[in-house]
Amino acid sequence: MNPVATRIEKDSLGEVPVPREALYGVQTVRAAQNFPISGLRPLQPFVIAQVWIKKAAAMTHRDTGRLDARRADAIIAAADEVLGGQHRDQFIVDPYQAGAGTSHNMNVNEVLANRANELLGGVRGAYTPVHPNDHVNMGQSTNDTIPTNIRLAVLGQMPALLAAIDVLHAALERKGREFDGIVKAGRTHLQDAMPIRLGQEFTAYAGTLVRARRRVLEAADYLNDLGIGGSAVGTGVNVEPEYPARMNTHLRAVTGITTLRIGGDRIQLMQSMGDAAAFSASLRGLAIELSKIASDLRLMASGPRTGLDEITLPAVQPGSSIMPGKINPSIPEMVNQVCFQVIGCDTTVAIAAEHGQLELNVMMPLIAHNVLLSMRILTNAIAVFGTRCVDGIVANAGMCAHWVERSAALATALMPTIGYEAAAAIAKRSVGEGTLIRELVARDGILPPHELDAILDLRKMTEIGVPSGGRGSAASG
After folding, report:
1. What is the pLDDT of residue 192?
2. Distance between CA 456 and CA 270 in Å, rounded?
3. How do the domains of the chain map onto residue ranges?
C-alpha cells in the first residue's frame, strides 16, 4: 500500500503530518489519533448546524466590519459548499471525543478555513489569509457554539419527525374508521374483558400519537432560545454587543428556522443542558407510546392458527430460514427495537446533562449524538411503521367475532340485572363447561330470549350505558 502523501502543520503542541489532500488540519488529526473509539463519524445534522453557525458568524462580522468582506465572503462560500453536500467526508471526529466538542468545532473551523483559502487562491494548510481560529471562529467559543448547534440541529430535524408522525397518525385514524364496525374481545391483564371495537383501539392509538406529538413540540420550543454570543463562559468576552441579535437574524435566514429567539440569559443557556434533556425525554415518551402500539399489533396478529389472529399485518419478508411460509411481524419488531434504543439514548442524555460542572457541560458531544440519533431512528421507524405496516393491516372480522363470543367477561353485562354474585357464577360455569355465556343463560332459562339478546348486544357494550334489558337493576329488586 502506498503511503498517504502528507503536509506538515503545527499547533501549540508541535508539528503533525496531515494528509495532503485533507481539508481538515492539525487539530482534527490530533482528535482522530486521540479518539479512535467507535469508528463513527459525526451525524450530519451536527455538522450542518456547526456550519450554519460559522456562516452566520461570517455574515455578522462582515456586517459590523470586524471581518473584511473578502475573507467573510470566502468563508460563506466554503460554508455553502458544505451545506450543498460537498466535503462531507472531511468531518471525521468520533462522537466520543474530548469534552464540550472542541475537536468538532475545530474540525469545522479547519475545513472552512482551508476551503476559503483555496477559493482565494491559497493552499491547504497555510491558513492565510483565512485562519481557522482568528477568522472562522471569530467571536465564538466551542462553549457557545456547541450548545447552539444542538438546538439548531434538533430544530432542523423537527419537520421530518413531525411529518413522519403525521403519516402514522393518519394511517391509524383511517384504520379506526375502517374497523369501527368490528366488535372484538377487550383484554385487561391479558385476560378476558368487556368488548371493544377494533376501530376504537386504532382511534385510541391515533389519539395517543397526537398527545405524544404535542409533548415533543412543547419541549422543542425551549430550544429556540439561543445562547450564541456567550463566548467562553456565557459573559460574552470578545463579542460585540450587537452580535447576538445579528446572529439570530442571520441564523433565521440561513437555517429557515424562523422561531429562533435571542436567549435572555446566555450564562444559564451555557450552564444547563436541561432543554436538550427535556426534549430527549419527550422523545422517550414518544418511543414508549410507539413501542406499546407495536407490541399490541404483534399480539393481535399472533397466530395465524395458535394466536389471536384478529388482524393480519402486511407480509414484508419471509419470517424464517427453516419454517416455510412463516411470516413474522417484522415492522413492529423493528419499531420495538428502535424504541428501546431511544429509551437508552435518553438515559445517556439524562446522565450527561446532570454531569455539567459550573459554567459548562463538557458532555455535549454525547448529548448531541444521542438526541440526534434518537430523532433519526424514530423518524425513519415511524415513517416505515405507517407506510409498510399500518396502512396494509387487514381485520379478521371472523376471528374477532369468534373470540368476543367466548369471552367470560360478557357476564359483566348481566350484572345490573341479576347481580354480581349470580353473574360471577355464570362466568365461572362458562369457563368450566366450555359453554358460551349466551348459550348457558338461554339453556338454563335465566333470562327470556328477548331480554338476553338486548343485554348481550355486543355493539351496545362498546358504548357508555347500562344494558339492563328493561328488567331493572338487581340492586333495586
Report:
1. 94
2. 63
3. 20-138, 144-398, 406-476
| CATH classification code of 144-398 | 1.20.200.10
CATH T-level assignment (fold) for domain 406-476: Ribonucleotide Reductase Protein R1; domain 1 (1.10.40)
Residues shown for the chain:
477
Instruction: Tell me what pLDDT residue 198 has.
Output: 98
Give whole-number Cα distances, 379 to 46, 123, 359, 372, in Å: 16, 41, 33, 10
Q: How many helices (H) and strands (E) does the chain have?
A: 17, 8
Residue pLDDT, tens place only, 171-223: 999 999 999 999 999 999 999 999 999 999 999 999 999 999 999 999 999 99
Q: 320 burial class (0-12, 13-18, 19+ CB within 10 angstroms)?
A: exposed
Cα distance between residue 104 and residue 40, in whole Å: 13
Gap between the Cα atoms of 379 and 44, Å rounded: 15
Strands 225-226 and 261-262: parallel
Mean pLDDT lowest among 62-71, 115-124, 315-324: 315-324
pLDDT at residue 476 above 50? no
Annotated catalytic residue 291: no
Q: Given 320, 321, 374, 468, which residue is catalytic? A: 320
125-151 confidence digits (pLDDT tens):
999 999 999 999 999 999 999 999 999
Domain 20-138 has CATH 1.10.287.110: no
